[in-house]
Amino acid sequence: MGVTPDQHLHVAQSLFHDHVPAQAVGLRTVWINRYGAKRAAAGSLGATPAAAPVTPHWEFATLRDFAEALVADHTARD
Length: 78
Hints:
Blueprint: E1 9-12, H1 15-24, E2 28-32, E3 58-60, H2 63-77
Parallel strand pairs: 1-2, 2-3
């Protein structure tokens, strides 16, 4: 696709299924933390095992919050 890891932003909710593997291949990540979990204590949720230690690059409570931050950032750059 011609896109390098530094040009990609992975937006997801699951620390275990999304952020750990995304960061393992060098992607920056945005955590949509819908449940208000603490990173250090974000243990198992249902069938999802506890995540390996991972620190997302950015964190938002909802996709709306993330979208509003993108618009604000884009507006500030214009």
